[in-house]
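[audit] Reproducing an earlier prediction to check determinism. Same input, same settings, fresh worker. If the tokens differ from the archived copy the diff job will pick it up downstream; this log only records the rerun itself.
[audit] input (64 residues):
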Amino acid sequence: MANPVQFINQVRAEAARITWPNRREVITTTIMVFIMAALTSLFFFLVDLAIRFGLTEGLRALGG
């Protein structure tokens, strides 16, 4: 097990290496997340619509 003081020093050294994104990168990434979420929801909406249509028509054909 490592010395607690040594561990804290290593954590600080690692934290110093972190590069934070700038404002433009954060905004761009956020916009991309919203676009992908919208596209994914549209895709699943269309798939759900197609399945519902298929089941409705299939049951209607079987039921007369």
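[audit] rerun output stored. Observation attached for the diff report: The mean pLDDT is 93.
[audit] end
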